[in-house]
Write a structure and sequence with these properties.
Elements (H helix, E strand, L loop, with lengths): L2 E7 L5 E7 L4 E5 L6 H6 L1 H11 L3 E5 L17 H14 L5 E6 L1 H12 L4 E7 L11 H13 L1 H12 L6 H13 L2 H13 L3 H4 L6 E6 L7 H10 L4 E5 L12 H10 L15 H11 L4 H8 L3 H15 L4 H11 L4
Parallel strand pairs: 3-4, 3-5, 5-6, 6-7, 7-8
Antiparallel strand pairs: 1-2, 2-4
């Protein structure tokens, strides 16, 4: 299953990147804090989660202005209206008048608010790991500390936040996740989006949501206490609240299968068929490792004792086999997996 990346422009003037995978009725995915469409497709766990959502649906994801493949927003601040602008631009670009809408983490509040303001555009609403009132997510002193750490020491903060968002990630994948955050956004953008997540308040909008709604939360979520998910569900008329095991905030970390089952069942989709995971040959893994070290095709050829054209051919075969668009994706995959198939 591949993803197709394209760009559109938001009303505020930012160039917004979006990706489409799968086929069927549209399922639009509103991310949480940070994202990178290319690098997320290179990380096996995240890609596997999105492929599971793409079976039977045309999954539409996007990078918010300032994140990933999208250009920075004109304003250094980040507001709920900025979120709406990006979502509206992607819906228009993909010709999506009505869809199933899924919001994750702080994106859950965005998705719920959109569903409340634009009820005719949402068929069903899925909210995972979310909250409706940001000030209650963490104590004020913790919020101040986290914001200051991100602003002043983004390298250190990206690693420490991995303990909060993804405590089940270990080894090479932990290094890859910290790097993924830093490559997804600058410290300034990360701070602005985190500040919005702490300030967001959609409590008064929840009662206006008319779409059938599923709210899912992991019982020991470290980033968003389960009480926040329950409060979100209680505010939406008729919403179903499902608690699943786990402690990682990111949906694809830990055991994603209970979450995938809940979502697919709610959307009326059958149990998914697990396809074969793309694999590389031993030589291709060697080449991928050298790409991760920053080697050019000429340097790869010299290291392996092959012609530069042969090295170029290996890189192209890796790219096609893994459905990657760039060397950065190959490097990200290698770091996350240690080169193991």
């Amino acid at each position: 299953m591949g993803q197709r990346v394209a760009w559109t422009r938001s009303p505020g003037g930012a160039r917004v990147a979006y990706a489409v995978s799968g086929s069927g009725p549209p399922l639009v995915y509103v991310n949480g804090w940070l994202s990178h469409l290319e690098l997320s497709w290179a990380l096996p766990a995240e890609r596997g989660f999105f492929e599971a959502l793409s079976e039977g649906r045309r999954l539409i994801r996007y990078d918010k202005p300032g994140c990933g493949l999208s250009t920075p927003a004109v304003s250094p601040d980040h507001t709920l209206e900025d979120e709406f602008d990006a979502l509206r631009a992607v819906l228009d670009a993909t010709g999506t008048d009505r869809c199933d809408l899924m919001g994750v983490s702080s994106g859950a509040a965005v998705a719920a608010a959109w569903a409340a303001r634009h009820p005719s555009s949402v068929s069903r609403l899925v909210l995972y790991g979310g909250w409706a009132y940001g000030p209650d997510v963490a104590a004020p002193e913790i919020q101040t500390h986290v914001l200051g750490l991100v602003r002043q020491h983004w390298g250190l903060a990206s690693g420490l936040l991995g303990d909060v968002f993804a405590p089940d990630v270990e080894g090479p994948a932990r290094t890859a996740f910290a790097r993924y955050q830093r490559e997804s956004a600058s410290a300034e953008t990360a701070c602005a989006m985190l500040l919005m997540a702490y300030r967001i308040d959609v409590l008064d909008l929840l009662r206006r949501v008319t779409a059938p709604t599923l709210v899912v939360h992991r019982e020991r979520d470290r980033a968003a206490p389960i009480e926040q998910g329950r409060r979100l569900a209680d505010g939406i008329p008729g919403a179903r609240f499902a608690v699943i095991p786990g402690r990682s905030h990111l949906p694809y970390v830990g055991d994603p299968e209970p979450l995938i089952r809940e979502i697919r069942r709610f959307l009326g989709l059958p149990v998914r068929r697990r396809g074969a995971v793309p694999a590389l040959t031993a030589r291709q893994r060697e080449v991928a490792g050298l790409i991760a070290q920053g080697c050019t095709n000429r340097e790869i050829g010299e290291r392996l004792g092959i012609a530069e054209r042969s090295a170029e051919a290996h890189v192209e075969r890796i790219r096609l086999r893994m459905d990657f668009r760039s060397r950065a994706q190959i490097a990200a995959w290698y770091v996350a997996t240690g080169g193991a198939n």
